[in-house]
Amino acid sequence: MASSSGNEDALTIPRAAINKMIKETLPNLVANDARELVVNYCTEFIHLVSSEANEICNKSEKKTISPEHVIQAPESLGSGSYISQVKEVLQECKTVALKRRKTSSCLENLGTPEEELLRQQQELFAKARQQQAALHQQEWLQETYERIWEDLHAFISVDALSFSMYPKRRFFRFSFYVQFFMHTQ
């Protein structure tokens, strides 16, 4: 089924995958010609089964080939004895896929329970809030100190005329600033 138009590699199974399966299943050495024959046979078999599954899919007026279509393909090709093995492989694939989804979670890969991670996250949030509040308070104090120094400077440098106009108000303001400085330091 593979065309000879130069895209033959696009229509074959990766040789490394087949070589790995051969090494895992066969204890003896396998000649390169035999390996090539197995690769070609596997490729043709996959094309045959997938084409038949595609026809079954089209007959059932579906757009996507489902596992049920692939399971029906060997039976319509005259290899119905393999259906139980195909179903077992399908179940194994589903199990592996489910495990892979579960283990691909970052939380499970860390080895730390989710409750512990949530507790650590809450601690980090609380620490960040405290740091933010301390920074905000420090900025507020800095602004307040600057305003007080400006007012004190204005109070000290005020001329005698303006001081004599509002002596009590300025004195109380000055004493408030002095008390504020004493309590904040």
Automatic annotation (TrEMBL):
Is Glycoprotein found in the keyword set? no
Q: Which residues form the Transcription factor CBF/NF-Y/archaeal histone domain?
A: 12-73
Q: What is its main location?
A: nucleus
Classification via Gene3D superfamilies: Histone, subunit A
Molecular-function GO terms, alphabetical: protein heterodimerization activity; RNA polymerase II general transcription initiation factor activity; TBP-class protein binding
Q: Which InterPro entries match?
A: CBFA_NFYB_domain, Histone-fold, Ncb2
- Tell me a GO cellular component: negative cofactor 2 complex
Keyword check for ATP-binding: no
Going by the UniProt record, its keywords in alphabetical order are: Nucleus
* Listed GO biological process terms: negative regulation of transcription by RNA polymerase II; regulation of cell division; RNA polymerase II preinitiation complex assembly
Q: Which Pfam families match?
A: CBFD_NFYB_HMF
Q: Which family does it belong to?
A: Belongs to the NC2 beta/DR1 family.
Write down what this protein is called: Protein Dr1
